Automatic annotation (TrEMBL):
Keywords: Membrane, Transmembrane, Transmembrane helix. This is Interferon-induced transmembrane protein. GO terms for cellular component: membrane. Residues 1-44, 51-87 have a biased composition (Gly residues). It is found in: Membrane. It comes from Nonomuraea pusilla. The lineage of its organism: Bacteria, Bacillati, Actinomycetota, Actinomycetes, Streptosporangiales.
Amino acid sequence: MSYGSQGGDGGYGSQPPGGGYGQQPPSGGGYGYGQQPPSGGGYPYGQQPPSGGGYGEQPPGGGYGGYGQQPPGGGYGQPGGYPGGGQTPPDNQLVPAILTTLFCCLPFGIVAIVKSTQVNSKWQVGDVQGAIQAAEEAKTWWKRTLWIGVAWWVVVIIFYVVVFILLAAASTSYGSY
């Protein structure tokens, strides 16, 4: 079996147009395997580019200077890591909102959960007054949910007591015949 040019104008054994593998391209167009790029366009292996760019140099405009260096302006934000300037964020009231939603009144509890989740998102964007207001609204809504739930359960218990008393009275009246 032969792998060389076997004549003809194509097929698996024919040479590609412009020469076979391992041949150098015609001069003037690109560089072949093992050739260096023309001078001025690239840098030989192992040599650094001229001053004005490279890995070990300072980026334009100063930059931060590398590992362990603090960025200009003192570093990583305000003390405490919160937008409020060292203050702690207000209590988001999420736990009581969830508990009153589960055990008292679902529709109003959902409003309380939504308000309580707005607290942290407003705090993170720097809206301190909005976060405080959302915390107060969340507290108001879970308290409303609690009172509505308690009132509902009182009504349900009264209803069952009345039904039980009526059934008990009705069963004793039928037994007297």
